[in-house]
Amino acid sequence: MPRAASFLPLNSSSATTATTYSKAEKSKRPLLATSTSNARLPLLVFCFISLTIGLAGTIFAVSALRRPRPLPVFRCGRIHDTFRAFYSLSNPQPDLLDRPKVLGFVGIQTGFSSANRRSALRSTWFPSDPDGLLRLEQATGLAFRFVIGRSEDVKKMAELQKEVEKYRDFMLIDVREEYLNLPHKTLAFFKAAFELFDADYYVKADDDIYLRPDRLSTLLAKERSHLLTYIGCMKKGPVITDPKMKWYEKSGHLIGNEYFLHAYGPIYVLSKEVVASLAAARNNRFVTHETCLINAIVFVPLSEGGSI
């Protein structure tokens, strides 16, 4: 006959071991949970510190970008303001020697063959003597100069020197004065004007216009919402690639079939922020056409201020 299954009672030592093991297991479980939470605490602190640093950096970057930056002054070669040089010799005054603050500086672009045009302007709206030029500047806040470069022709330079000594109304810049070099002259003019005058606006004008200084002053005195401002006419047109034509563009293959929208006309205005960016350009090789000078500007129609 099969034996009946017999169940042996657990001895005291076995019971003690089981009881001890159960207590040990129970005591280990909360220790594991505590150690896990302790390990997460430094990670949470690190994440919080990183988030704080990131937010602080973002706030600092935004405040730095919104903070107005001082406009630097750049050297652009030899410049001679015959008007202020004349007054500084006879009656030295700090405002005539330093970089004067004016509402606008108007540079009348002229050449060696334009003596008759300068004479016509001096007999109409442009003062023909230094005292009259100074009074106009004080009345309108606008400084006016004829802007001209240099020539290798000794006779032309001698004739210009006589005119300079008579009228004292020139800004002489160190660029070669010729038609094909006008883009470089324009850039040199803005750099020179920015170096000599602390103006809110810089005006480039031709020497065959009749200007109303009072109306120009009223136009420039208006408040505008944009710092980068252009006032004048805009146009675009085809690039002339025929070498036989007058307006032949040597670098036409770099521009394309049509010029982009650009400044045009016998007179236009740039705000000092735009001119500061032009003055900061160290490399002049990008200038292939006068229209390439103005970049990232805000267009303000001339009709906003009426005729000037």
TrEMBL record:
Keywords attached to this entry: Glycosyltransferase, Golgi apparatus, Manganese, Membrane, Signal-anchor, Transferase, Transmembrane, Transmembrane helix
Transmembrane spans: 41-65
Localization annotation: Golgi apparatus membrane
Major subcellular site: Golgi
Top-level enzyme category: transferase
Annotated pathway: Protein modification; protein glycosylation
InterPro entries: Glyco_trans_31 (IPR002659)
Record's bilayer topology term: Single-pass type II membrane protein
GO cellular component term of the entry, any: Golgi membrane
Sequence similarity: Belongs to the glycosyltransferase 31 family.
Protein name: Hexosyltransferase
Originating species: Vitis rotundifolia
